[in-house]
Amino acid sequence: MTRGDSGTRRSSIGAFLSLSDRFLSVVCSVCTGLGAVLVLLMGGVVGYSVVLRYVFNQPQVWTDELVGYWLVLVVMLGAADALRRGSHIGIDLVTEHMSPRVRRWSEIWGLIAVAFVSIILFASGWEMVAFSLQVDLVSEGYLEMPMWIPQTAVPAGSVLLGIAALHRMLLVLRTPVSGDSRQ
Predict the structure, then answer these.
(1) pTM for this entry
(2) Rounded to an integer, what distance in angstroms lies between the CA atom of residue 102 and that of residue 96?
(3) Is the alpha carbon torsion for 67, 70, 76, 79 positive or negative?
(4) 98: three-class secondary structure by DSSP
(5) CB 45 within 8 A of CB 123
(6) Are 171 and 181 in contact (CB under 8 A)?
């Protein structure tokens, strides 16, 4: 392989990462926006329930079930964007004392763990949805919702989380370590 081939490959990898970053940014922004709308709706539904329960003495039994489903959806919609922006939980007390090279490898191993967990979440979520569809499972609450509908949030969100983890891992691997002589 010649030196020019290596430069061409780097530029094509850079172009791919740039394009995928824009795509992931748009998808995550849409998911985060939807999650924000759901949080507002959850506040409205909970407020509605509280007013009817304590002011008019007419409790609404369906609201807790619906808010529970929406909460899972909000978490699954927001996890990928949090990872993409580097806002996931970290232990700064430990990582700030690491050398740049060790910190980089720590982040890579963390991203591998997230990708692995997203695969497990996808597989178990897919199995859960398939089972719910197979047996026509509906919720025991007052909504009597087909369970595959809220359960779909788990495999869908795990796919997005896995993609975000792999993308961030590629970015970390491509970025030279500060103080590193390699480019």
Answers:
(1) 0.79
(2) 10
(3) negative
(4) coil
(5) no
(6) no
Residue written as token pair 């509605």: 48
Q: Are 177 and 171 in contact (CB under 8 A)?
A: no
Rounded (10°) angle between helices 153-174 and 3-54 = 140
Which amino acid belongs to residue 2? T
Q: How far is CA 181 from CA 6, 14, 25, 28, 64, in A?
A: 17, 20, 31, 34, 57
Residue 50: left if φ>0, alpha if ψ -120 to 50, beta else—which one? Answer: alpha
Cβ contact 42:70 at 8 Å: yes
| Residue 23 token pair | 């795509």
Which of these, 169, 135, 128, lies nearest to 150 by C-alpha position?
A: 128
- Buried-state track 58-88, b at ≥16 Cβ within 10 A, e below 16: eeeeebebbbebbeebbebbbbbbbbbeeeb
Task: Using the predicted structure, report yes or no on whether residue 4 has a pLDDT greater than 60.
Answer: no
Q: What is the pLDDT of residues 113-158, one digit of tens each?
A: 999 999 999 999 999 999 999 999 999 888 899 999 999 999 999 9
Residue 173 near residue 12, CB atoms below 8 Å = no
